[in-house]
Amino acid sequence: MPDVLVAGGGPTGLLAAYELERAGLDVLVLERDARPATQSKALALQPRSIEVLEDRGLLAALEPYVEARLPAGHFSGIPIDYTDLPTRFPYQLGIEQAHVAAAIEARLRTPVLRGAAVTAVEQDATGVTVTAGGRVHRAGWLVAADGGHSTVRTLLGAAFPGTSARISLVVADLTLARKPAGLADEWRLPSVASGFLLPLSGGRYRVVVGGEEQQRLDRDAPVTAGEVQRALTAAHGPEIEVGEVLWASRFGDAARQLERYRHGRVLFAGDAAHIHLPVGGQGLNLGLQDAVNLGWKLAAQVRGHAPGGLLDSYHDERHPVAARVLVSTRAQGVLGVPHPDASAVREIVTGLLAAPDARRGVASELSGVGIIYPGTTGRATDVPAAPDGRAVLVGASLPAGWSDRVETRDGTEPLLVRPDGYVAWAGGPGLDATLRRWFGPRAPAHSDRTSVSA
Ligand SMILES: Cc1cc2nc3c(=O)[nH]c(=O)nc-3n(C[C@H](O)[C@H](O)[C@H](O)COP(=O)(O)OP(=O)(O)OC[C@H]3O[C@@H](n4cnc5c(N)ncnc54)[C@H](O)[C@@H]3O)c2cc1C
After folding, report:
1. Residue of the CA atom closest to atom 20 of ligand 1
2. Sorted alphabetically, which keywords does the UniProt record give (predicted)?
3. Which of 64, 223, 278, 318 has the smallest count of CB within 10 Å of its CB?
4. Is 448 exposed, middle or buried (0-12, 13-18, 19+ CB in 10 A)?
């Protein structure tokens, strides 16, 4: 019996599984689709996600698929310079989400169980019983990372308040039979929230359109080549001609967030916990950060040494971050809608965002590097994560009784870094109390050890 089941093998579920496995747990990912995704909704990784993936040794595997390094993010198409961000990666990586998911999946010890759509979830005092693909699975805990239409969320009747979609857009990957003169052959930031045309590898283009026709059509209507052609002709003139539509989907600006990320033994992460207009390249990044925040806390809970409240701190820390992204993406949506005065608002906001402090504030939010969880001083930029998911103590001696949860390293600057990379202590008094707060009581002297056993 696995320690933890994960519903959904998208990037969030896969990274959550990887974090749990690194900490020595047995994990089984249940994925609805029979085959790994080849199409990608997201195309952008933000600096904090790049840091996390590099820290886990995953960045090298992504390198061959990197399409662009953009030294800026954007707020509804308004460029937000990243070059002075305090990170080794002051840029967005243009990369298709499917490659990110595949790189994480390749690291899992237990293969993802595919063709296993979750259809029933029950929980009791000791665990969860999950029916998926007609088979019954049992584990102590369930991570629900089954995306924006989360079945687990529906099965549990979890409150998901917010606003329904009011605008409708189409995303499509396609080839062009004829290109208009002057079409950019390299990545550029989108010019407005409601549409862009971006070159991808292999002669493909990513198109996002959201004109009048899209607003009229039913949300479930299939996207046709004719519909995309009409939208592209309207935007780029008669010279543009669609070749083959390889993949297309409709999306909107619904903005919803779970009231509670934890429902007993079920923990929600990624799009299952929050949805919003995908502007500014935030959703995938939120999901990846949810996964690394949850992983070590749930691992500690399963191992039985989580201090009181640690698992609930997952909600306390991550809910406000996504709530803020919902505010940001709703505001960005307003700048992109076809309102006669949207351009006036855009002009004013563009001017305001030129002020260095405003630009730095927005850059720090969009990039994810500005997150400071309560009780931490922000992320450590130069302390690589321990490979076994332990915390890291640098430049100080570790009191007896925590070496199963904390690795020690030499260094001049004292730092205690949580397994998700956030600094819990930076010298001075209170190391013992901090260790207890995040990692639970000291182990009896005879059980002190230097590595975590599975
Ligand atoms: C057009 C568009 C562009 C975007 N661009 C960006 C971007 O540039 N940057 C960014 O950060 N974000 C972007 N996003 C958002 C990003 O794609 C999502 O936030 C991200 O996919 C969330 O990952 P996830 O793993 O939480 O969910 P998903 O990727 O949706 O994965 C959920 C998984 O669960 C599986 N599943 C569903 N139901 C079940 C079930 N019942 N049982 C088992 N498995 C199930 C699905 O098959 C899927 O594999 C974009 C989104 C869209 C629509």
Report:
1. 284
2. FAD, Flavoprotein
3. 64
4. middle
Mean pLDDT by 10 residues, the chain (454 residues): 98 98 98 95 96 96 94 93 97 96 98 98 98 98 98 98 94 94 73 69 91 93 96 91 96 97 98 95 96 98 96 98 97 85 92 97 97 96 94 97 97 97 96 97 67 39
**Ligand 1 centroid vs 272 CA: distance in angstroms?**
9
Give the DSSP letter of residue 192: B
Domains and CATH numbers, the chain: 4-162+256-367 (3.50.50.60), 168-251 (3.30.70.2450), 391-447 (3.40.30.120)
Q: Is 137 near ligand 1, meaning CB less than 6 Å away?
A: no
Verify whether ligand 1 is closer than 6 Å to residue 67 (CB atom): no
Phi, psi of 407 (to 5 degrees): -90, 145
Paired tokens of 130: 């999950």
Strand partners, 205: 174, 199
Burial class (CB in 10 A: 0-12, 13-18, 19+), 83: exposed
